[in-house]
Amino acid sequence: MKRCSGYLCFLLALLLLPALTAPVRARAADVFDYMPLSDGSGAVLTKYNGKDAVVVIPGTLGGLPVLQIGNKAFQKCDFIQSVQFPEGLKAIGDYAFHGCKALQDPVLPDSLEVLGKWAFAGCFILKGIRLPANVSMIGDAPVTACTSLEQIEVDPLNPFFASVDGALYSKDLRTLLAYPPGRTETHVSLPQAVENIATRAFAGCRNLEEVSFPAGLKTIGPTAFYTCENLREAPLPEGLVSVGAGAFYWCSGLREMTLPATLVEVEPMAFIDLAGLTAFEVAPGNPVFSAPGGALYNKRDRQFVAWPPASPITQYTIEGGTLSIAPSAFMNCTTLTDVTLPDGLLDIGADAFRNCKGIKTIAVPASVTAIGDGAFTVWEGEIALQVRDPSSALLYAQQNSLPYEIIP
What we know:
Number of helices: 2
Shape: globular
């Protein structure tokens, strides 16, 4: 995937609805903030100050052609329904139209070359978008959280990107960049050429129930399936190497999760808040991960990674030799009533036991030297700590006004 950097911007052509009247044109200086490019070749539109539902961006500002729309220039202008850009616009910046909830199906100009990250994120009623032939750089998650989006099209002459079944891919189909959240299909089979799933590629796809991954898949990017709450089956293939941070966060419908033998990197919170998961499994021969008692461990780093929230086990002892508990590792594990921490434990991550409302007390070993924010917070209060005096856990409890008991 080609990524953009610096000022990225983007041109939207106007799609006027019959109910809309012709726009009232205000003077550009009253409506748009801009600045010249350093080489004097054109202008960057940096901010929209108007309140019109129909926006027409002029071809020039201050006598310079408008070549870019700057980062966040129209962010959260939730009253905008359509935008018309001048031909010649080259780039759209990061978050340029983020949160424009009323924006409808923009038509991008042939001159567009760069589309920034989250450029149209959160445009809730946008149903379709088409990338012209000259687009060569796209930032992460340009249409994430567009809950009505059903179709991403790409000009067939574009040498960098392609559309397959309404989803956005790199031209060689090795990377899936974005799957439209508004599609109604419950089962998706990815092309066999796919090796990478990009950041937030499926985020918010709430109709999705099953995904069939190709045998050659190597990476699943950060938050790739975030809030795919109806996803029930996503068997990870042998050959998968890396799963990004938060990749399956809040996939509450998942019942099974087996890590293949080839998977050697799982970033923080990749498998957190899987409310329906009863146990993790790890394929034999995996050199990094294991799943004793259904819990996920990183053997290489001696870290407790994640607990399956739907496990029938109510009392659990973390394995001896464990040095750290990952952030959010037990979060929302409401059926657990007792967890025993091992001597020699050094670090308890942020939110590690957040909302574990079945646990009333935890004995924290004197060996613990670091505890993250919110590690023992429950919605109704906090978990009482059993601590030694002196210890880092005692200091943490005092500084955070947590209930505690000093034990021998």
